[in-house]
Design a protein that fits this description.
Two copies of one chain form a homodimer. By secondary structure, the first copy, chain A, is an alpha+beta fold. Chain A is built from 16 helices and 17 strands. Chains A, B: Keywords: FAD, Flavoprotein.
Chain lengths: ~500, ~500
């Protein structure tokens, strides 16, 4: 690790505070007498946080200052409506909870009054599969692998792979506009949604299932990214696709991140629509994919169920070569340096749980910015975070998604923790990153959502009349303001 | 004509009521003393209607019951803000007006109190072109051909071609979610919008310019389709692209519309993304493209700036052949039967002006529906409209756009007019069509917007809590309710 990151950890392995030693604030409200509600301390503890570093760290130290007062696990919409009715009458905040993988404080009942964590994972079924239209009606609490396990019997896949894939739910993806690692085209879950059904305190919000519409403002697009503030998503019709039968991938080396970025811009603007177009800077290539730190690495991949993708790949590589790219081979599937990266990528949600113990502070943040600003943006953000780190630690960058008009850069920050002061240290890094991203022209988040952690920058980023409109919309469907207060509005 | 449509017109050519014979209701309010406002009768007349048949017919007969009381033509945002402030203080409705090509009553001040038509066509400039990110900042009142004339100097195009292209504006496209005749992918202007700037009575609503974002509900997606009810769009950053250098097109014949539809479904689901994939039923192929009525006709086309499209076309035609498709040749550009269709298509906005004079009643309506429902949907809608026509006239269908999960069918209705009673006759057809579309599972509009004419079905189609949310959003930014009352909410 030292050779790669340039800093050493102190070698001390700290033990976490065990769950039974945690002292929880007593519940401020008793759960309603419903069989699917519980105030068990273990349930309250495991529904307090998401998976941000500051969440992991606080859990590690046994700090659970803002747990939900109880947890509800509705078995169906009927149960769910009973909770909402009770909560509205009792003035209790309702925080929807899917896989609990928010990295932005989206599921933490932070500084709320009495609250219930509404765990939706019992809504876990595929209700219909339409093999003619290639769509499926799926309940919101279903986990990624369960969805695909069901669809594989039909030869289909949702093909939406956020990094949290194994631990997160369809409803969570929709509420947060998750990114699913199609590098182009259907980058967000937004593009895969055909219709959404949600329960609001003022009734059922269910859109008509059609392949496209121009009937006024899109009802689905108002729920996408609503983060539980407008309604509780219970199911959706989503677009699925045949499992890919043809694949080609190559790991292309570039002499610098800048040269690689130019290649990605050219490929993005060529109309080839690669499924994978992930560019790692030299440090990240070294850290995750066996690079030696002298080159940037582009994982370029095409896939299709219908036809061989050679023509697409050939042209993509021609464009890469014209920007100084070199590669060893084109593989028909995964593996190679791309495979090494993928393994690291999917292990990350598990690995990160170890950071607190080993004294590593880690932050990842992501954004999107237009190509004309990218070079200056990258320099400004990297510089600002380096300054916040005080000369130690490492800042790397990759492109997670790419568009004709700009990339979605993803930054990883690793540094030696100030033991005992990690949350403050993390907050300093986060603040520096957020300020730099906003000032240099990015969005505060491309696919991690806003939650509570991004509010300071989100509030500055969004237009004021839009904020007022969103508040007006919320007041109309949630007049008591019980739905996930503190996120968005 | 008779041979094709199966009915004869009476041959009588009626003359329209000339503008100077029109008796307008006197203005109910005097315009503010601003140099860009006028209550000239000619201006009021030409800002009363859009281009629906019922608009043309009423204008033809000199019926102008609901003209705006005056017309304002702001030269810049400063002027525009003065109008909005004056209107809010005076309780006067503001109806934004771009090219005036609404076919759904979107620009008609129908049954409003005092009103001003806010003509935005003086906001007609390209403000910036970003050749690196492929984007341009364009004022909302600019017409389609003017936009492309400006961009051609940069080797770029917006490539958004609604049928009204020559007469309509960027702001109108955004407010109504116009379809631009990319058959797949960027079907609506929505997909080309990078950011929007609008003026509301509560300030400027301007989103950040980024290639993608997941920061909460999208502010742009709330303005897209807002039809002037939330704010007046003044400019937008839009995604542009290099002008295509490579093209291939073929006119493929199918023994029936159903076989052609199956071919289109297969092609849509193959991930080939044709730029043109327009299927005409046998009657429409005969009417517009030189068909003999025995075959359906698919115009299949691919285009790219970056690379030859042979591999794409070859596979598209293979799929067409597997569904019984035959063709004579693949052309490198347009022309042929596709060219004949395109000529008719672009002439249509002019031709339709003649319908009232020759005693023809005409209606076009469009929708989208999932593939699993399409066959039954097509039969139900065609049958219902035929019934409404009472055994005379013709109903044809084409696919205007297509998605992996369903097509966007476009219906054309032509019949002999009941002279003097055409508007009632048209209303009957419209009512039958709207009812059938909604009952059989379509959307009341895929790209013509809601306006005032589609309200009865739109109100039933949209979820009630969403309607309440939209009303709440409007109340927040337009508390006096002056912005285009009657559309959407």
């Amino acid at each position: 690790m030292t050779a790669v990151t340039g800093f050493t950890l102190d070698g001390e392995i700290e033990e976490p505070v065990p769950p039974d030693a945690v002292r929880l604030p007593p519940p401020r409200v008793a759960p309603p007498p419903l069989p699917f509600c519980t105030a068990e301390p273990y349930e309250r503890i495991t529904h307090t946080y998401g998976k941000a570093y500051r969440d992991l760290m606080r859990a590690f130290r046994g700090r659970f200052d803002n747990p939900p007062d109880f947890v509800a696990r509705p078995r169906d919409e009927h149960d769910l409506i009973r909770v909402l009715e009770w909560a509205e009458n009792s003035g209790v905040a309702v925080v929807p909870y899917g896989g609990g993988t928010s990295v932005v404080g989206g599921v933490e009942p932070r500084d709320l009054g009495p609250s219930v964590s509404l765990d939706l994972t019992r809504l876990d079924r595929v209700l219909e599969v339409d093999e003619v239209s290639l769509a499926a009606r799926i309940q919101a609490g279903m986990l990624g692998p369960d969805i695909d396990r069901h669809l594989v019997a039909h030869g289909l896949t949702l093909r939406h792979f956020p990094q949290s894939y194994e631990l997160s739910t369809l409803g969570g993806w929709i509420a947060t506009r998750a990114g699913g690692h199609f590098a182009t085209l259907a980058t967000h879950i937004d593009d895969l949604v055909e219709s959404i059904r949600a329960i609001t305190p003022r009734g059922v919000w269910e859109s008509r299932r059609v392949p496209g519409s121009g009937a006024g403002v899109s009802p689905d697009r108002m729920l996408l990214g609503s983060e539980g503030a407008l309604g509780v998503i219970t199911e959706a019709w989503v677009r699925v696709r045949p499992r890919p039968a043809h694949r080609a991938s190559a790991a292309v080396r570039f002499p610098s991140f800048g040269r690689g970025a130019e290649a990605v811009r050219t490929i993005s603007q060529a109309g080839l629509h690669p499924s994978n177009c992930r560019l790692l800077d030299p440090a990240e290539a070294r850290l995750t994919s066996g690079g030696d730190g002298t080159y940037a690495l582009l994982m370029l991949g095409f896939e299709a169920a219908d036809h061989p993708v050679d023509a697409w790949m050939d042209r993509g590589l021609e464009l890469a070569r014209s920007h100084g790219g070199t590669w060893d081979e084109v593989r028909p599937g995964g593996g190679g340096q791309g495979g090494a990266w993928k393994d690291t990528f999917l292990r990350m949600p598990y690995l990160r749980n170890a950071y607190p113990a080993i004294g590593l502070v880690a932050e990842t943040f992501e954004t999107a910015v237009t190509w004309d600003r990218f070079a200056a943006f990258h320099a400004a953000v990297t510089g600002a975070v380096r300054d916040a780190l005080g000369g130690t630690g490492i800042v790397t960058c990759r492109f997670a998604f790419t568009y004709p008009d700009g990339p979605a850069p993803y930054f990883t920050v690793l540094a030696r923790a100030r033991r005992g002061d990690e949350v403050a240290q993390w907050d300093e890094i986060k603040r520096a990153a957020g300020e730099a991203v906003l000032t240099a022209g990015g969005t505060i988040t491309h696919h991690h959502a806003v939650g509570r952690d991004h509010r300071p920058w989100y509030d500055r980023q969004r237009p004021d009349p839009f904020a007022a409109a969103l508040r007006g919309a919320k007041d109309a469907v949630d007049p008591a303001g019980i739905l996930n207060p503190g996120v968005l509005v």
